[in-house]
Amino acid sequence: MGMTTGSAGRPLPLVGRGEASWITTKLDYVVNWARRNSLWPMPFGTACCAIEMMAAAASRFDFARFGMERMAFSPRQADLLICAGRVTYKMAPVLRRIWDQMPQPKWAISMGACASSGGVFDVYSMVQGIDTIIPVDVYVPGCPPRPEGLIYGVLLLHEKIKGESVFDRELHRQLRAEDPEAVGKPNLPDEVIQQITGPFGNSTQQNRVSGLVSTGALARPGDRLS
Amino acid sequence: MKTKTVEYLVTRNPELGMDGRPVRVPVLPPGVEPELRGEHMLINIGPQHPATHGVLRLVLELDGETVVRCIPHIGYLHSSFEKLGEYRGWNQIIPLTDRMDYLAPLIYNCAFAMAVEKLMGIEVTERCKVVRVICMELDRIFSHLLWLGTFAMDVGAFTVFLWAFQERERIYRLHERYTGARITTSATRIGGMLADLPPGWTEELQHFIDTFPNTLDQIEALLTNNQIWIGRLRDVGVIGPEEAVNYGLTGPNLRASGVPYDVRKDRPYYDYETYDFDIPVGEHGDCYDRYLVRMEEMRQSLRILQQALDRLPDGPINVDDPRVILPRKTDVMTDMESMIHHFKLVMEGIRVPPGESWFSVESSKGELGMYVVSDGGSKPVRWRVRGPSFVNLSALPRLVEGHMLSDVIAINASLDIVLGEIDR
Amino acid sequence: MAMSKDFENAVEGLAQGAAGAEAAAAGPQRGPEADAASHPSVPRLRARFGDAILHHEVVAGDEHVVYVRPERILEILGWLRDDPEERYDFLKDLTAVDYGGGRPLQVVYQLWSIPYRRGLRLKAELPLDALEIDSATRLWHTANWLEREVYDMFGIRFRGHPDLRRILMPENYAEGHPLRKDFPLRGRFSRAEQTRRALSVDLDDIYFPEELEVGGIRYRPTGSGSAGEGPGAAEGGAA
Description:
The structure holds three protein chains of three kinds.
Chain A: E1 4-5, E2 11-12, H1 22-36, E3 41-45, H2 48-57, E4 80-84, H3 92-101, E5 107-111, H4 113-117, E6 138-140, H5 147-162, H6 169-176, H7 190-196
Parallel strand pairs in A: 3-4, 4-5, 5-6
Antiparallel strand pairs in A: 1-2
Helix pairs in contact in A: 1-5, 2-5
Chain B: E1 41-45, E2 57-63, E3 66-73, H1 81-85, H2 94-98, H3 105-120, H4 126-155, H5 158-179, E4 188-189, E5 192-193, H6 201-223, H7 227-233, H8 241-246, H9 252-256, H10 263-266, H11 287-311, H12 329-334, H13 336-348, E6 355-362, E7 367-374, E8 382-386, H14 388-394, H15 396-400, H16 405-414, H17 419-423
Antiparallel strand pairs in B: 1-2, 2-3, 4-5, 6-7, 7-8
Helix pairs in contact in B: 3-4, 4-5, 4-11, 4-16, 5-6, 6-11
Chain C: H1 5-24, H2 41-49, E1 53-59, E2 63-68, H3 73-82, E3 90-97, E4 105-113, E5 118-126, E6 132-134, H4 143-154, E7 157-159, H5 191-199, H6 203-207, E8 212-214, E9 217-219
Parallel strand pairs in C: 2-5, 6-7
Antiparallel strand pairs in C: 1-2, 3-4, 4-5, 8-9
């Protein structure tokens, strides 16, 4: 029986006090194995992506292989929030409250382009990415992503969970601590929200409203944010 | 029109009054002091809820378990399609139409293209007409299958959900082979389709038409004469024909109440009057009749699909109109005028002459109306979608009055709503 | 290089669109007055309502549009619904169109008669400083939500509507009426402001059922067993 080595190359003790050790890494492995293979998804399905999520749960693509067939509709019993579909500002407080109601450990997958960044809808009513509202672990692009894409996103989340630790106090605190003051507040500060939700690409050229009112961006400054 | 009457033996619930609604009984017998009577309770369903078919919020006032009042709140999925349409060229709106009714995207694609073609006075080719009829009927089955799966799941039968989704996977395959996408098909263009049918597609569709009735029979064997199913749905959510028309119900909801109104028969388009099909009409206007009407509609759609496949003519899929159709790529690469033509069409978009047009198609949910107003530019002045689910849902408060809480879920599911087209 | 006929037609067609745009910049041109007899309801409308019927035209080949005075819209709609030879029992759609540039808003009613299988479109034009018209809810229940949507998106008030409040946007939406042409696509507030406002909605108002704001009126469940009381009678009963 030799010593195992930690990440810094130092040999790990078998049992430690408050530091990484052989026992804790093995226990972490077991805990992470249990958590990732029985993620209970909370399907926060709003639009077209929800249909692909249902198809992923149906028999052809089958979430049950990953232990996820038990869809938790109560956030109190869920581990994973899959936000599938576009989220409006009217729906945003609902999403935030559902996220807050989920107990730790919890993860979030942003499924689809609309949940990740607003998608096609750079409009007055649409949240430009749910990461402005809740912390997101995995983004799955697509419009809608194929069920295989969603499953790939779940597998990426599995990889992420493998790297977590319950017994490494610092890492555990970073991952799992939640600030009670942050309940109901946006996930990102205002400046960051402005930065990541500014108009870009083709949307900045689409200022003309039909042939009648042909104006440039200078004449309608309200259409641009910057 | 020859009607076929099918008898289903059901037992009538003796506790229901003559109008099919539960007789309201007082909470306590008379003579008891009013202080002992209960208060009404207000509960909130949604907007995040597994059984509301999307982000719908229902506020119910309950007297015990009986619904006294129901107030739906919508707008949780309002993506401002109509405003966005004013900023997009005519062909760029087609991908937006997929995302409104994501359960039957081809119907929306076709409806929008048909509205703009009517405004421009373009008549599509014969092949395109038949291909569009095939697409629309296929998506009618597609949408009804999802309705069936979720409706059965709401009432408690989970197996049907899995069977329906397995059949939907076959239609997903057909979508994907033709358009490249499972749900967001964007298959039409103004004046034609994105491409012609790929080789082997019609054979796969024929195979689907031949084998799909088996699944329908199996599902009907599970549900139609099932006493639990009938007990949950018979005489629940009853609405009479005049009221249904006044509430603006359309589609299977209206036909279940006895009104034989179907846009394909009343204002036919794309030679629907030459196809041999029936429209199922119910009698009682309850959830069970809505179920029967939709099941029969799927079979009738199969009939239309078979006839359309048989008559699919050869020929070009796109109309030969230089106002809307891009020139052939080989010409664009070799010929200056074609290149300029291509450039103008792509960079400036199609220009639609000033005017307006309203076009109705029979979508799986009801009557879908597309109203486009143009001022001669490359983007619309106004694009209005008359979504059938929006109007169908506005009848929900009337339908659930007097019923119990569990019936609310069944009635909501029987209306077959999709929040994408309600909130637009 | 000789231009082919096809190319000339194509460019002509594209240029026509551009010319149309310039002409249309003056205002949405109403089409020529159509032959009144081409639609059975129009001569009867003219005979009964006289100068309340402003204009009749045919668009897109076979759609009949009648422009009417907004003050008499309820009379006209009621007659169209109830007259035994008209029987427009189905209100397919009720919407509005904003052409921009200060032009009046048009309220559009799409009617269909199921017994007679014919349709008619009515339009009433409202100047921007007087966006009020009578509500059609007492004729068709369909109009209830359709008018709420027009109010939400355009700001047109419907007199006599039982419950005129926003339907698609949140109740506290403060940026205006989105489908108007002077409303920018991304809204009037910045994204950070919109996010902050969205999350500052007090969900306890919504999720605790004892006091629920319904129809804009604080509503408490009544103490009696009858269902007749509406929100207006909320003061009585147990608090």
